């Protein structure tokens, strides 16, 4: 494939934008080479500035679960745009999407919309601190909860990729309130809770981690966290920015049948526009301004275009719940196909999968946490990534990211992908 125009556009972008990108992982630093500039996309396909067609396995990092430029979503946005794009006043559609989201997700009474997953997680933690009157939080190594200060402590994907888990600019004062635990290690969490009795406001976790590859909670792990929180007056925050409206209609809470105290959303809930949200039971959400004392606000929060896209997306998922099964079937098919060709190649690998999230790790150990994820052979991944790209398959440009399937992918797209894996594996 030729990337002449992408290369020229990247050179220009670097003159005006740090690293030429508005979010670091897009720059391809983890895999080498230069990023592909996308021109347009439809369904499961990306079309880049040089006219190459690529099968997309990132779906804008999750939001586009039904594929690119999905018509009901596009039409909803166009229709709204003609009537004004922002008011800073309440609109009826905010209640409409709130009501629908609450009906789809277990165990939440009220929801507040923001503009990104980062904002949602940041606000969820502030709310937990305000509600409990405590200051510390526990997060897990390799989990990503957006780029706000408290979370940039071993934060997975982007941060890990660049080998700077603790970003300069995060103060010691902030860092000391974030306690770090190991994913899938309940004993470790218990020790931390015991050592900080009555000081921990919340445990925040990706119920399926997607920012160190795709990592599935061991049986009993999330249940154990729930019990530990209940026994110690700690709020359990599920960061469902990735898993919400993806793993099931009601996200990971529904899939694992575990109730969190506060849930953060992003990605799918905005249908590809900038939206995040956080939600909880009534008594917790009523701690939020203007009803309660915990402040949180946003000029563009509940923006009509964003709400129209999100509402159209949630309606599609709510009215067609078989989508989740179709996606899981397609992902299982991809898993089986890759298993066959990779095992024949004799390379060390392990594949993690749940629902429509999947990741390939070039290691001979089971990947269950950040440490085991980091055993993956990154040189292999780089070659694999570029090999797949040359075959016309766009994977996340980092070994520390989950792939996201979208339902516009056909079985023949997946067959094409498996065949590409077969070709690429030969040259690894
Ligand atoms: C993407 C992501 C975020 C951050 O969301 P942004 O919209 O990028 O700010 C937070 N948590 C998880 C689990 C994510 O995957």
From TrEMBL:
Provenance organism: Abyssalbus ytuae
Cited Pfam families: Aminotran_3
Subunit relationships: Homodimer.
Gene that this polypeptide is encoded by: hemL
Enzyme Commission number(s) of this protein: 5.4.3.8
Protein keywords: Cytoplasm, Isomerase, Porphyrin biosynthesis, Pyridoxal phosphate
Keyword Isomerase assigned: yes
Known catalytic reactions: (S)-4-amino-5-oxopentanoate = 5-aminolevulinate
Biological pathway: Porphyrin-containing compound metabolism; protoporphyrin-IX biosynthesis; 5-aminolevulinate from L-glutamyl-tRNA(Glu): step 2/2
Protein name, entry field: Glutamate-1-semialdehyde 2,1-aminomutase
Cofactor entry: pyridoxal 5'-phosphate
